[in-house]
Amino acid sequence: MSDNTIKTAPQTQAPGLLDKLFAISERGSNVRQELLAGLTTFLAMVYSVIVVPSMLGAAGFDQGSVFIATCLVAAFGSLLMGFWANLPMAIGCAISLTAFTAFSLVLGQGISIPVALGAVFLMGVAFTAITVTGLRQWILTHLPMGIAHGTGIGIGLFLLLIATNSAGLIIKNPGNGLPIEFGDFTSLSVIMSIIGLAAILGLEKRRVPGGILLVIITISLIGLIFDPNVKFHGFFAMPEISGDTSLVGTMDIMGAMNPIILPSVLALVMTAVFDATGTIRALAGQANLLDKEGNIINGGKALTSDSVSSVVSGFVGGAPAAVYIESAAGTAAGGKTGLTAVVVGVLFLLLLFISPISYLVPAYATAPALMYVGLLMLSNVTKLDFDDSIDALSGLVCAVFIVLTANIVTGIMLGFVCLVCGRVFAGEWRKINFGIVALTLALVAFYAGGWAI
């Protein structure tokens, strides 16, 4: 953090123990702000406990067991990130890797559920090994600034796409022409999304504390009153940790080491390395949690937290884990320390017992917050150095193709290709170092080999 940021920070002092543990006042925050940020992030990503079990359930997983696993992974990963790395980033089962596990591994290749979980476990082990040996940090170090900022821009656009699609604001075009179109402007979800975004813009301009959270809660209440799909199912429900349907400890590691399965494990690892690493870098930049050299504060711990979470996920019966893009909703709400992530982790533990509450927050209630965050992340375009046009435009290539392909790794790969080839054609090959060339070749080989997810 810069000195200016600290000087202009809120002056409210946190209690001694929390302040010392999370350096709250040092980063210019206070307990109330961190609690609100944590609740905002939780509400923005709580949809995962519905989406992940549904996707894996389609592949034959017991949905109740996956629900428990999803909560446990989010709780473990977020608590580890909060207490150890002291960063406001929440971890959960990655939606893209969940889809790969369900539809490619189990349904596509006919792999049994225990073997698929074994693949997730092995992916987590390999992912952690890559992290602790410093390879992920090496990747971050050799990530050109244009592509680093371009990843942030692309993730912002990606958030906009995810949020608007979940709320029905942007939908798939069933006819000829472009693949997407504007949704039903008169529908409740679209109206609430637009009004909610406008409300957040206004409340944040006026610096209303907890404005984003206030909008989410208000729209959820409106949905409960007027939307028949939003129903009250009670408050409490006891989780079933054990039993015949439990997935805890059922992974088949030896089965996953079959030469036929290993390429899929490699695909999971490669995707996680570039996807999750790019996401963490973008979130840290958006939250102004970079040091003077542009490195992530406690970056090594942050990278290890999400990789270890995938190991845990394979054990408890979930999908590969990663830092959630939706964490940006919490940082936009003022989260600056690990207390934000700890709040998320505690709430996911509580959700094991109050799971019916998750059905009271419709997608169009959290969509405005995600759209707002996406718009904020587009400000990364001002950080591009257009005096070095190849670096800047390669970053924009990365950004644009992240959203056009709905894949962060694809955007990064194309950005690297344009950067390296652009340098060569411009006669600027001296600006290309070994690290950039190695990363480019690895990404191109990954796609050329057909391993990309």
UniProtKB/TrEMBL annotation:
<keyword id="KW-1133">Transmembrane helix</keyword>
<feature type="transmembrane region" description="Helical">
    <location>
        <begin position="35"/>
        <end position="59"/>
    </location>
</feature>
<feature type="transmembrane region" description="Helical">
    <location>
        <begin position="393"/>
        <end position="420"/>
    </location>
</feature>
<feature type="transmembrane region" description="Helical">
    <location>
        <begin position="113"/>
        <end position="135"/>
    </location>
</feature>
<keyword id="KW-0813">Transport</keyword>
<dbReference type="InterPro" id="IPR045018">
    <property type="entry name" value="Azg-like"/>
</dbReference>
<feature type="transmembrane region" description="Helical">
    <location>
        <begin position="432"/>
        <end position="452"/>
    </location>
</feature>
<feature type="transmembrane region" description="Helical">
    <location>
        <begin position="361"/>
        <end position="381"/>
    </location>
</feature>
<comment type="similarity">
    <text>Belongs to the nucleobase:cation symporter-2 (NCS2) (TC 2.A.40) family. Azg-like subfamily.</text>
</comment>
<protein>
    <submittedName>
        <fullName>NCS2 family permease</fullName>
    </submittedName>
</protein>
<feature type="transmembrane region" description="Helical">
    <location>
        <begin position="147"/>
        <end position="170"/>
    </location>
</feature>
<feature type="transmembrane region" description="Helical">
    <location>
        <begin position="182"/>
        <end position="201"/>
    </location>
</feature>
<feature type="transmembrane region" description="Helical">
    <location>
        <begin position="208"/>
        <end position="226"/>
    </location>
</feature>
<keyword id="KW-0812">Transmembrane</keyword>
<feature type="transmembrane region" description="Helical">
    <location>
        <begin position="303"/>
        <end position="325"/>
    </location>
</feature>
<keyword id="KW-0472">Membrane</keyword>
<feature type="transmembrane region" description="Helical">
    <location>
        <begin position="337"/>
        <end position="354"/>
    </location>
</feature>
<feature type="transmembrane region" description="Helical">
    <location>
        <begin position="65"/>
        <end position="84"/>
    </location>
</feature>
<feature type="transmembrane region" description="Helical">
    <location>
        <begin position="89"/>
        <end position="107"/>
    </location>
</feature>
<dbReference type="Pfam" id="PF00860">
    <property type="entry name" value="Xan_ur_permease"/>
</dbReference>
<dbReference type="InterPro" id="IPR006043">
    <property type="entry name" value="NCS2"/>
</dbReference>
